[in-house]
Design a protein that fits this description.
By secondary structure, the protein is an alpha/beta fold. The protein has a single domain, classed as Alpha/Beta hydrolase fold, catalytic domain (Rossmann fold), CATH 3.40.50.1820. The protein is 36% helix and 18% strand. It has a 6-stranded parallel beta sheet, sandwiched between helices. Strands 5-6-7 form a 3-stranded antiparallel beta sheet. Strand 1, helix 1 and strand 2 form a beta-alpha-beta unit. Helix 1 crosses helix 10 and helix 5 packs across helix 6. The relative contact order is 0.18. This is AB hydrolase-1 domain-containing protein. It comes from Apiospora hydei. InterPro entries: AB_hydrolase_1, AB_hydrolase_fold, Sec-Metab_Biosynth_Hydrolase.
Length: 256
């Protein structure tokens, strides 16, 4: 079977190149890894994509890997936790084995991710935060989110960088479909496979207490323990603490 393939599901407005240093480092250890560009990321004409569109896109990639006999570890970041949870339906290794098929998802590894409860949208996870604690956004006339205050975005999401560098990275964020945050979650994929969580204790975008609340919810729903690793990091650990994230991913790959 060989090493499992790691598929990174990016955060909102985040292009795959943000994860490239981590991808390059993990690849050097002989582990296949890729970061996807979700349909909801980056403005395009037409109806803005939903979480279902993102989940279907991810599922296509998983299916291709699984049909090639590969085990798959999903690593989700931020918004990616919602479609990453949704897309597992019918694609766990256990489910595929029961269908006489090889490969499949063997683990979901959440990294400072949004995991709404079943029937709730991704936006519900941060609903209890006061407005001043939310990254400032607005929605354009086509239904796409953009960042209305880059300085504040840097202060909340790129906290471990000097402010000017944080603003540099905030400028790299592209528009994101507002509909993807408003679409309810229709499947709890964390019930199908073992779950890990990289809890970023310095995260101001998804504070540690919200991350822990989600972990508690998954443990309550599944009756299983989530394998939690704590990291003193802001919201963008792949950028601010790439060595620690790489080490975490390598340990995930050895578990399976």
């Amino acid at each position: 079977m060989g090493a499992p393939s790691i598929v990174i599901i990016p955060g909102a407005s985040t292009l795959p190149k943000l994860y490239q240093p981590v991808v390059d480092a993990v690849t050097k250890h002989g582990i296949p890894i890729q970061a996807l560009r979700l349909p909801s990321i980056g403005f395009k004409p037409g109806t803005p994509p939903t979480i279902s569109d993102d989940a279907a896109f991810i599922a296509q990639h998983i299916t291709s890997l699984a049909d090639a006999g590969k085990d798959v570890i999903l690593v989700t970041h931020s918004y990616g936790g919602a479609p990453g949870t949704r897309c597992v339906q019918g694609l766990s290794k256990y489910h595929r084995q029961n269908q006489g098929l090889d490969g499949g998802v063997v683990r979901i590894a959440y990294m400072a991710s949004l995991i709404p409860e079943l029937g709730q949208p991704a936006s519900s996870v941060q609903a209890s935060l006061p407005p001043e604690s939310l990254v400032p956004t607005a929605v354009d006339g086509n239904g796409w989110i953009y960042y209305s205050n880059l300085t504040r975005s840097a202060q909340l999401s790129f906290t471990d960088f000097p402010l000017e560098e944080g603003i540099f990275w905030a400028k790299k964020l592209v528009k994101h479909s507002a509909a993807s945050f408003a679409t309810p979650l229709t499947y709890s994929g964390y019930k199908d496979v073992p779950v890990s969580y990289l809890l970023c204790t310095g995260d101001l975008t998804i504070p540690a207490w919200i991350q822990q609340k989600q972990i508690d919810m998954m443990e309550r729903e599944t009756g299983s323990t989530v394998a939690v690793t704590r990291l003193d990091s802001d919201h963008v650990a792949p950028l601010s603490h790439p060595e620690a994230v790489v080490d975490w991913m390598l340990r995930l790959a050895k578990v399976n």
